[in-house]
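Lecture notes, part 5. Sequence design as translation. It can be helpful to think of inverse folding as translation between two languages: the language of shapes and the language of residues. The source text, in structure tokens, appears below.
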């Protein structure tokens, strides 16, 4: 670089301009231009693109410092001392301590605590860089190299608390530690457990890589150790290996269960692959995936498969069974598309999967008798009238009988209600203006099969399909206090195959009915009509005493009288005859319909005309609140419902009256209701216990004969029922239990989460140390379910069903909880499904023991493991599975 300068005269007089000499310019023009052109080129090549970097400034950032007591500068030693609540900020690095010394000669910064006589050291150093915070006893930091050395440092990274004797900070993202303890305990100074590592490389928010490490429990070393270890510390989901659990059982031998790999596919879904293996050759696998797109949809998919072997090949008791289960749950956000919706709830598989699985600990699922599934899509087309369309695939499976019913698919369409004679403005009045009609369409492809034929060609052997068109027409009007309505319904049924029946003589000379399938389109049409009239009667009582507890009672009675008729459709029936068209000798004339066995069945051949009678009752009261400060009356239901129903068949030639049905719901408390039902028959029985066309009162009996009675109640009591509303904590429902068809009230036992193979965590409570030993509030809950059925339809005079089921939970302390469920079947005289469970919250650990002491599901399960998800593979479980039945 070159710099040229000049000085102006002090007088400020201008410098005269020197006129150039033309001859001299000609001679010097070439070298002058050469010099002017070449200098920038040399500067560009040798200076601008030179690889030598500019030297750094002595301090990359400005140091900001402060102290409460004093800030002393030593000019001779070139040091600065900050005392009491000292603080320095250097870039993104902040150091706070009781005393800080800055040596400007070496660039070192020393930070210490302040020694107090009675309190020991106070204001210990706090070193923070970005989001990383370290709390050591002392710090040595070099502001030039930005390296640091800390002693007895404590830091928190994710779920880990790390305490190291010596920590060396190399740069912003790497720390080296010596004799470090790391734990997930909330009390790192006195943890229940910790891992001691001699050497550690620590990358904040990413990983911990250690040398020799072993586990300490209550400061006692254990033989659990590794020559090296890797602990991920990221807060994001990462793919990784899932450590299996091990053990043995009586049927399959030693095993490894629930081991596999977890794939964090992307931000919208994950994938888990798990497997089981037993030494006798049995194996199983499980695939699970959760997915979610915000504001659109979310769901989960789980598929389980097991190949179970009993005994050994070649032995007489050897058996092999394959079982599977598929569970899919999908829900759509209502805001994503208001006019269309897709949902799925699938639970299908082998009927005995949950009862015989060697990896099943969900007790509620083992008691489910039905598996059901539904996948549906619906679409609405707005307008006037609105058109709705939906299609669904349904599945229902009885796990006791192995019967499977499918609809593949079901189509439904409808046009909203139309009032053709209604005025364009104003309300609808009279019979004509209230006439309305709509259109409904339903089509099904129904399949009935068994568990063995499911997903084979045989499942379609008994498939039937058809379409039903329905047009209901109705109107209503009022006359005084009475409401009248009239209705009619037109149905047209389309089928694609019918059945012809004939009598064929077999080898023994006996005529048998033979059915032949006739493929092709066919249809039949039916109609029905009816009318009803009803009113509402109010009865009331009001207290004259303003201090009375009950101030008023209101009785609401809703009587209803209706008529319905279904004509006879004889035109769809044919005479059952031989192939020659003759009746079989010795047999009465019989008729059949070619639509017998179709999807919606055959039309009715008998004319039906009946009058239906019904009365609904409801009783309410207004009472004074027990709180004298509240002046408003409180509404209380004395009788929720008491309904009477019967009918009279006008077209029948005998037994015209149907039994009188009584249904009632009586509230006992706010959470307890009693459900009652009874049937009373007006007709008597003959000597063979068959109904006869004689009233029971004319046969020497009472006016009505009790044929059936039922009593049911279920309720929940808990300690929160006796507390204020703001103290109550509603119970949680396990999603996996409900997906498998279980109950949410715990009557069949609390399930274990099989995906993690550990029990559900007990309810957390905020309690201080003083309440850990002495507790004045002991939370508890009890669930009761009682049912009783009395049957006397044919003079049985017996209670054929009576059972009581109880489940409950009790928290003995903030960390101890016990629970269980049991019951008794009074009709069969036996104890129902019984389980006992014990849970202990060990702060950093969970421990549980579940026991089914009696019955075919006799088993137990013990588990202890670390709560933190980063160390969830550090666990131990032992179980005794129920013996499988092949």
């Amino acid at each position: 670089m070159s710099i040229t300068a000049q000085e102006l005269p002090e007088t400020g007089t201008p410098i005269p301009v020197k006129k150039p000499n033309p001859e001299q310019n000609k001679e010097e023009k070439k070298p002058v231009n050469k010099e002017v052109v070449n200098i920038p080129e040399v500067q560009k090549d040798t200076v601008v693109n030179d690889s030598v970097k500019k030297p750094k400034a002595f301090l990359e950032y400005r140091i900001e410092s402060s102290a409460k007591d004093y800030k002393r500068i030593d000019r001779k030693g070139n040091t600065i001392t900050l005392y009491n609540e000292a603080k320095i900020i250097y870039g993104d690095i902040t150091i706070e301590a009781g005393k800080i010394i800055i040596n400007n000669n070496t660039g070192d910064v020393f930070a210490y605590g302040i020694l107090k006589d009675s309190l020991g050291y106070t204001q210990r150093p706090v070193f923070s860089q970005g989001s990383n915070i370290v709390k050591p006893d002392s710090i040595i930091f070099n502001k030039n190299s930005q390296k640091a050395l800390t002693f007895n440092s404590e830091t928190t990274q994710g779920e880990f608390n790390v305490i190291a004797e010596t920590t060396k900070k190399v740069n912003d993202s790497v720390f080296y530690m010596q004799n470090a303890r790391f734990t997930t305990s909330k009390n790192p100074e006195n943890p229940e457990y910790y891992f001691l590592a001699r050497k550690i490389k620590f990358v904040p928010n990413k990983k911990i890589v250690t040398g020799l490490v072993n586990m300490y429990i209550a400061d006692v070393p254990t033989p659990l150790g590794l020559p090296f270890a890797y602990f991920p510390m990221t807060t994001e989901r990462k793919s990784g290996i899932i450590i299996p659990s091990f053990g043995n059982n009586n049927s399959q031998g030693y095993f490894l269960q629930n081991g596999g790999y977890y794939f964090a596919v992307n931000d919208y879904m994950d994938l888990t692959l798990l497997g089981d293996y037993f030494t006798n050759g049995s194996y199983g696998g499980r695939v699970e995936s959760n997915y979610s797109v915000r504001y659109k949809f979310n769901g989960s998919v789980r598929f389980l498969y097991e190949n179970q072997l009993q005994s050994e090949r070649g032995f007489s008791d050897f058996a092999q069974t394959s079982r599977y289960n598929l569970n899919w749950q999908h829900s759509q956000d209502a805001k994503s598309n208001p006019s269309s919706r897709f949902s799925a709830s699938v639970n299908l598989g082998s009927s005995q999967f949950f009862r015989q699985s060697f990896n099943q600990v969900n007790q509620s699922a083992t008691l489910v008798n039905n598996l059901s599934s539904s996948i549906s899509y619906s679409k609405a087309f707005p307008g006037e009238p609105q058109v709705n369309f939906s299609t669904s695939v349904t599945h229902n499976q009885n796990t006791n009988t192995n019967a499977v019913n499918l609809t593949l698919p079901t189509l439904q369409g409808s046009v909203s209600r139309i009032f053709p004679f209604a005025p364009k403005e104003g309300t609808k009045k009279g019979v004509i203006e209230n006439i309305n009609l709509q259109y409904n369409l339903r089509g099904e492809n129904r399949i009935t099969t068994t568990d063995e034929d499911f997903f084979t060609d045989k499942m379609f052997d008994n498939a039937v399909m058809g379409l039903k068109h329905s047009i209901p027409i109705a109107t209503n009007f009022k006359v005084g206090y009475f409401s009248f309505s009239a209705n009619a319904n037109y149905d047209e049924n389309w089928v694609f195959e019918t059945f012809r029946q004939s009598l064929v003589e077999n080898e023994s000379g006996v005529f048998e009915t033979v059915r032949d399938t006739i493929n092709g389109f066919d249809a039949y049409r039916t109609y029905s009509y009816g009318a009803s009239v009803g009113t509402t009667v109010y009865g009331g009582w009001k207290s004259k005493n303003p201090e009375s507890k009950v101030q008023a009672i209101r009785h609401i009675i809703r009587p209803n009288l209706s008529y319905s008729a279904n004509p006879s459709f004889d035109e769809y029936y044919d005479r059952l005859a031989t192939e020659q068209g003759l009746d079989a000798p010795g047999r009465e004339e019989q008729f059949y319909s070619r639509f017998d066995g179709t999807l919606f069945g055959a039309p009715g051949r008998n004319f039906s005309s009946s009058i239906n009678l019904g009365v609904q009752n409801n009783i309410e009261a207004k009472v004074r609140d027990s709180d004298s400060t509240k002046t408003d009356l409180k509404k209380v239901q004395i009788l929720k419902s008491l309904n009477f129903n019967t009918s009279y068949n006008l077209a029948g030639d005998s037994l015209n009256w149907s039994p009188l049905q009584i249904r009632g719901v009586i509230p006992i408390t706010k959470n307890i209701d009693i459900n009652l039902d009874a049937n009373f028959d007006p007709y008597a029985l003959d000597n063979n216990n068959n109904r006869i066309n004689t009233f029971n009162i004319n046969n020497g009996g009472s006016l009505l004969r009790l044929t059936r009675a039922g009593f049911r109640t279920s309720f929940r009591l808990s300690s929160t029922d006796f507390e204020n509303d703001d103290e109550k904590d509603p119970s949680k429902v396990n999603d996996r239990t409900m997906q498998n068809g279980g109950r949410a009230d715990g009557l069949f036992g609390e399930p274990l989460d099989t995906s993690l193979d550990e029990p559900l965590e007990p309810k957390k409570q905020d309690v201080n140390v003083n309440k850990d030993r002495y507790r004045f509030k002991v939370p508890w809950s009890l669930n009761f379910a009682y049912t009783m059925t009395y049957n006397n339809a044919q003079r049985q005079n017996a209670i054929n069903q009576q059972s009581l089921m109880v489940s409950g939970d009790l928290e003995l302390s903030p960390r101890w909880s016990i629970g269980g469920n049991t019951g008794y079947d009074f009709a069969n005289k036996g104890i129902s499904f019984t389980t006992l469970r014990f849970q202990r919250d060990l702060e950093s650990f969970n421990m549980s023991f579940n026991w089914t002491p009696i019955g075919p599901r006799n088993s137990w399960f013990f588990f202890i493991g670390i709560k933190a998800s980063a160390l969830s593979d550090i666990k131990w479980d032992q179980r005794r599975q129920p013996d499988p039945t092949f």
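The translated text above is only one of many valid answers, since several sequences can fold into similar shapes. Residues 57-146 form one domain.
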